[in-house]
Amino acid sequence: MAGGITETGEPYSPFVGLVYMFNLIVGTGALTMPKAFAASGWVVSLSLIVFLAFMSYMTTTFVIEAMAAANAQLRWKRREQEETDDSDSTSDYSDDDSGQGRSEPETKPILSAQRSGHDHFDIVERVEMGQMASMFFNKVGVNMFYICIIVYLYGDLAIYAAAVPISLMEVACGNHSCSAGSVKYNDTDACWGSVTRKDAYRVFLVSADVFSANRLNQKFNTEQAWLNKWHSAFTMMIILALIRIGKGTGEGRPPVASLSGVPNLFGVCVYSFMCQHSLPSLVTPISDKKRVGSLVLADYVLILGFYVLLSFTAIFCFDSSLLHDMYTLNFTDNCDVLNIPVLRYFLGLFPVFTISTNFPIIAVTLRNNWKTLFHRDGGTYPWVVDRVVFPLITLVPPIVVAFCTHNLESLVGITGSYAGTGIQYVIPAFLVFYARRHLEPVMGRDAVNKHRSPFRHAFWVWFVLAWAASCLMFVTANIILTETKK
């Protein structure tokens, strides 16, 4: 997924927040969306992507409500500590030794306590999902949360590890002479003399990962300029596809429905709408949060429209059987669509630069989550463990996966179907459920969380959990049946 979320903590306007959220969600998943969209048929794909956008929006509102609840609980604990300290300070000067002094602090509703001048549910402190899990879950729940995050990040790294060498291989080994466009290459085809495309892919894989490993222990910043070029690349692809369709030379004849492609499309869509784990960094700096709910809804409508436009132009512009896992690659060897060499190379190589920037960021996040899982109370590790062991367990598994397969559509589908389901559905549902249970004794039954989800009834929480469980069973059964047939 794209980066670009500010880490300075400086406030920004709701409009900037809307742009940041668009940047956050629209990323690598969008490049694999057209092929998955075509494989399921346009009617089925359109219906599923609309429904999954709705489900992702719902769980996003769950996370925002949990963030507001976490802020309220932190204020309550801080206020209780202050009252305890004040009471202790007063007792030092009391001459009453008869035992009729202060009573023990009690957990009591603080709805009426507005001395601070702001609502207790104001989101002013950035409370990450891991911290919320520690506040609302028991030890087992916290460990399960970190395991889910780690598995998802491993999938993310495997996708990024494969995407860069795929793009490099296609540019280096593909036909850019304007005579291709309808050619589908095999891994065993020659690239340079006796070097096959698969060999070239692995050479680029090792080179890219050595570069990323060298950056793992360095500080870095995400360049906003790459995001602007990222949007330019998407806009260019949509316009080029529309021009070809408008001329009547589009080759796409997508089926209306094909249920065989649904499980993979589900995973791709979940992955493509993923933002829940980054919401604290995104929402907290927004200066005016009165309309944060409307902002989130508007963003999901825009993103849904963007995905639909990108996918529909792709499936009617190109033959579905020739769509690449990385959609940008469809423009590198087809001069009927784009006959300017510089732009063809720009689209072919662009994912390399953006993903190369994001790979170390995801790797550092994964490494830090491993450290937190093993030792959440702070402290330091021996140099060998910190600089060798953690980087190795971070980088080796995704590199091995990318070495064995470069089927991006499957990698995105599996990551989204399993770990993505946990992060997008299961964790937000449990967070909001336990946040409500924790705050009721403290805030009182009449307390109103101004950032509460529109889906406030408990039915929606159980609906999300039931949906997640049924999807996991369906996807798993489909994988087993597919492998059995092979």
Provide the residue-averaged pLDDT: 81
Instruction: Give the count of helical stretches.
Output: 14
CATH third-level topology: Amino acid/polyamine transporter I
The CATH class is: Mainly Alpha
Q: What can be said about the biggest beta sheet?
A: 2 strands, antiparallel
Order of helices and strands: HHHHHEEHHHHHHHHH
Domains, number: 1
* Assembly context of the chains: single chain
Strand order of the largest sheet: 1-2
Q: Give the fraction of residues assigned to helices.
A: 55-70%
Number of strands: 2
Low confidence ranges: 1-8, 98-117, 219-226
> What Rg, in angstroms, do the CA atoms define?
25 Å
Shape: globular
Query: What is the CATH architecture assignment?
Result: Up-down Bundle
Spatial separation of the terminal alpha carbons: 32 Å
| Beta-strand fraction estimate | under 5%
Organism: Xiphophorus couchianus (Monterrey platyfish)
Biased composition (Acidic residues): 82-98
Subcellular location: Membrane
Keywords: Glycoprotein, Membrane, Transmembrane, Transmembrane helix
Helices and strands, with pairings:
Blueprint (H helix, E strand, L loop, with lengths): L13 H12 L2 H13 L1 H50 L37 H8 L2 H35 L16 E3 L2 E2 H19 L8 H23 L15 H11 L6 H5 L8 H26 L23 H34 L8 H22 L3 H36 L14 H28 L1
Antiparallel strand pairs: 1-2
Helix pairs in contact: 1-10, 2-3, 2-8, 2-10, 3-8, 3-10, 3-13, 4-13, 5-6, 5-11, 5-12, 5-13, 6-12, 7-10, 7-11, 8-13, 11-12, 13-14
